[in-house]
Design a protein that fits this description.
The protein has 228 residues and is α+β, with helices and mostly antiparallel strands. It has eight helices and nine strands. A nine-stranded antiparallel sheet has the order 4-1-3-2-7-8-6-9-5. The longest helix has 15 residues, at 64-78.
Length: 228
């Protein structure tokens, strides 16, 4: 059974349409697009063929078998290995909150939910919440009520919202907020359930939540000692 992955693509902003057209060929619509800017020093940028330009970050979800085909296409069609073209990588998704939310992030493709991530021994998880713009506090109130700490928010724009509305049966706004919460693995299920119940698809936030395994952390030791 194929593992589910978060696919992240980073490229110059003027390459957005090119990458979107490419992913459309593979029937993978990018869920979210966020804007950023390169921060590396000039000598590092030049060594990779990059300039300090405005960047686009594209987020989508693909199975492991889909990624193999997409990676091959990126190398052959996009020539992504040429310095300055962009980078793409995948991160295994350890769990998804709810059947409809699984439908959302897989865009209705025929994907069968299998076991959670093969990274069984992780002590922390990165919880990713995608919610309508302006409902961060609703999400965080729910998460904090289930022992979550703080979160980090970035603004993003959803793509293909009409398609999602068709099979989810809900009205979705295109302006989105992505909330990132690092939590202990033992608290993950309670936090995800709280967010689904209090800020999920049946609420104005229209939030979805999934988790990514965190293999190593730095900066959480003092917080964990306080809790102990």
């Amino acid at each position: 059974m194929s593992e589910l992955n978060l696919m992240v693509t980073i490229s110059d902003r003027n390459q957005i349409r090119r990458f979107l057209a490419f992913y459309k060929e593979f029937h993978v619509n990018i869920m979210l697009i966020s804007m950023g800017r390169g921060t590396a020093e000039d000598d590092i940028l030049h060594s990779f063929g990059f300039e300090a330009s405005e960047k686009a970050v594209l987020f989508g979800v693909v199975s492991s078998s889909e990624w193999k085909e997409i990676k091959s296409g990126l190398e052959k069609q996009i020539k992504i290995d040429i310095p300055g073209t962009g980078i793409a990588f995948v991160i295994p998704v350890s769990s998804v909150g709810g059947k409809k939310q699984l439908q959302f992030i897989t865009e209705g493709r025929d994907f069968k939910k299998g076991e959670e991530s093969t990274l069984k021994e992780t002590k922390h998880e990165l919880l990713v919440v995608i919610a309508n713009l302006g409902y961060t506090e609703m999400v965080m109130d729910a998460a904090r009520g289930a022992k979550a700490g703080g979160g980090t928010v970035i603004h993003a724009k959803g793509t293909g919202m009409k398609k999602y509305e068709h099979f989810l049966g809900v009205s979705l706004a295109s302006e989105k907020e992505m909330i990132f919460i690092v939590a202990k693995s033992e608290d993950k299920n309670a936090i995800m359930k709280a967010v689904m119940d209090q800020a999920g698809l049946t609420t104005k936030a229209k939030g979805i939540i999934f988790s990514l395994p965190v293999t190593e952390t730095a900066g959480l030791r003092l917080m964990e000692q306080d809790e102990d």
